Hints:
7 helices, 17% strand, 4-stranded antiparallel sheet, 2 domains, elongated, alpha+beta, 6-stranded antiparallel sheet
Amino acid sequence: xxxxxxxxxxxxxxxxxxxxxxxxxxxxxxxxxxxxxxxxxxxxxxxxxxxxxxxxxxxxxxxxxxxxxxxxxxxxxxxxxxxxxxxxxxxxxxxxxxxxxxxxxxxxxxxxxxxxxxxxxxxxxxxxxxxxxxxxxxxxxxxxxxxxxxxxxxxxxxxxxxxxxxxxxxxxxxxxxxxxxxxxxxxxxxxxxxxxxxxxxxxxxxxxxxxxxxxxxxxxxxxxxxxxxxxxxxxxxxxxxxxxxxxxxxxxxxxxxxxxxxxxxxxxxxxxxxxxxxxxxxxxxxx
Length: 287
């Protein structure tokens, strides 16, 4: 990260009152979800991207950034009507980006949580400026363009913080893919070492694997939660579903599929065989 970018990140992280602001914002977001009643989990799963198999927020953020960049170019070309339409499209996209981003953010702690507050505040300010720009363009075009330029500058700084959260602080990435699973059958444990009806974490050539035993049958999936790296072996097992102890993501131990979020990525699955009392696993290609 360039020095100037690092300085901006450090400046944001040391702003006063961030923890109190984070608590207030998280309380508001969680309160809104609680008010949804039975629809709470399906709604969160939808916004987390569980249905997509990929975090939804990064995809949605392309809409406002792309639209507002187009508005910048159209303004430079003197295309007033097209620029105003682009600003409006960006505003609609910003609503979706805010909803998905806040949903992801509620499951963060420490630096990502603090930096996320600044990221959200800057995005909110940029969105308000673009909203004012859209209104002003009908009466005072020059003022509308000036407001857009200011909003674009603020959104650009906010994008730096968003990129830091994703690329440096690993929020929204697939933590189960930190290392490559074994491509060949690997001996990992004795069958007797795995309690019947229980779980055991083992090492498969440097890749952590969760074994679940049902009599003589063994199921195997990645032991590190794809959401934020939680240890699934320390979670709870109910039937064929394991629940991550960190944020409550639930996965099927038979195939690694997501039962409920906030995880947006399924767990890597393994084919497990038992030979002469020893368990061997090999990675299964994702469908």
